[in-house]
Fold this sequence. Notes:
This protein is mainly beta. The protein has helices spanning about 5-25, 30-60, 65-70, 545, and strands at about 75-80, 80-85, 90-100, 105-115, 120-130, 135-145, 150-160, 165-175, 180-185, 185-190, 195-200, 200-205, 210-220, 225-235, 240-250, 250-260, 265-270, 275-280, 280-285, 285-290, 295-305, 310-320, 325-340, 345-355, 360-375, 380-390, 395, 400-405, 410, 415-420, 425-440, 445-460, 460-480, 485-500, 505-510, 515-520.
Amino acid sequence: xxxxxxPAKGKRKKSNMNKKNSAVTCNPFKLFGVINIKRNIFxxxxxxxxxxxxxxxxxxxxxxxxxxQNENLVEILKSDELEIINQPGDESRRVTNGVFRHKGALLxxxxxxxxxxxxxxxxxxxxxxxxxxxxxxxxxxLYYYGNTRLxxxxxxxxxxxxxxxxxxxxxxxYDMANGFAYYKQPGRTVDEENVLTSKEGVxxxxxxxxxxxxxxxxxxxxxxLTTDTLLYNSLTKWSYxxxxxxxxxxxxxxxxxxxxxNTESTQSAFHTRTTVDNETYTLTADSLVVDGKSNDGxxxxxxxxxxxxxxxxLNGDEGYYWKTKGYSKIFGHAYVRNVVSQDTLYIRADTLYxxxxxxxxxxxxxxxxxxxxxxxxxxxxxxxxxxNTADSIIRFFxxxxxxxxxxxxxxxxxxxxFLVSNEINRMLxxxxxxxxTEDTLVKQFNQVKGRTINAYFQTGNKLKQVLxxxxxxxxxxxxxxxxxxxxxxxxxxxxxNLLFEDNRVQRIAFIGKPDGKLIPPxxxxxxxxxxxxxxxxxxxxxTKAKTTWQEK
Length: 552
């Protein structure tokens, strides 16, 4: 039936019939023309390829610039919503709850605007940067510049965390390319042991070093440090400070201007004038090293150690103090001052040692080599000296010699001075003892010598009595009631007792058999005026300036 046939088959048949008809009715001249046109098109195409092929190959050889640009762009990894906004000169994307990745770092926020042309991101709400395995920065707002990798994070509480360290401030400028985080608003850094605050600061995430500026304060359980500028390495625990610095702990205070301090070992080194102060002593020097655990100190340059309990002051070029031992050593232009009542005793030596007695806070001073001693009422020199403030006894060794403002001189192998109420009460001379007093009336010298001499003094440091024990000899001038010189007494006796008044012998007593004579003034020979070994060395008497190294 004609109505049941497939229309497509009908058409296909018709088409075949047409093709067949075309073949039958084909004009050979027209067919030749078509073939000729196709040949011309092929030739034109071939020549065109020959002409333009260098340019086509050249375009394929050019480096692909677009992929490099894409590598520098901040990449969107995830978002709940993404809106593309195209404006003249600015192609941007609005990203909700997005995650970005750039150079290994991840950026999170509630809302972000990504500017494609400038490669910059503005992010708001729960902003977070995660860099590597340790560093995280959080805040309310983020401006991230992809070309320079600068992230500016701000908010009511902006936090940078790096392992066990946390920096909190209002705004952080984080140079992610170089690893520097800056803050110019008050910030607070916390680690396992320390809390550091400052008005400004920089954190180097590579070296783990913090640099703090302005009103810097470091606090931990052991101490508090305040300074103007502080560089703190959280790995080595060393703090380097510059500007007026103060360290306070339970044992004392350190004040300086430039140095370093270890927050773990409590070791400190100061490079400018610094003072350590505690309940027992004060140590000041141009440079200083202090052990915070033991409070032992070492100072160099114009060192001053003050023992507070007995008002003893040690000065020198270099000094050491061991607090647990109560022991000090100072050398190089070293001298000590001990203030008693209203007078001061000065002792100078090549090296000075000070030992504190913790039981009664008394002190023993030792001077070694080239010793000078100065007090307002007597002066001296020797090779070594000891002074004990507990009993006020001064011992002079190795060729000691002493002078008084009352015109006397004493020499012996060793001399011991006993002070009472800050005045000399007794002098004990042992070995080759020699006492010389200047008699201003006759303008001569009275002399006593022997193996051992005890010299006693009255108020005002005036010589009162001399006891000679062993090999005693004396040469003194006698005067009558009218204060007229009547001659020179030369006496030898094993033991003698001489009483003095105004540096003149008033009475003499001999124990044993004396051998003596009175020589009239007119018959005194020059050699008889002096005992063997006489040497008036008043020119060597040290002054205060010499004892304190103020003059040579």
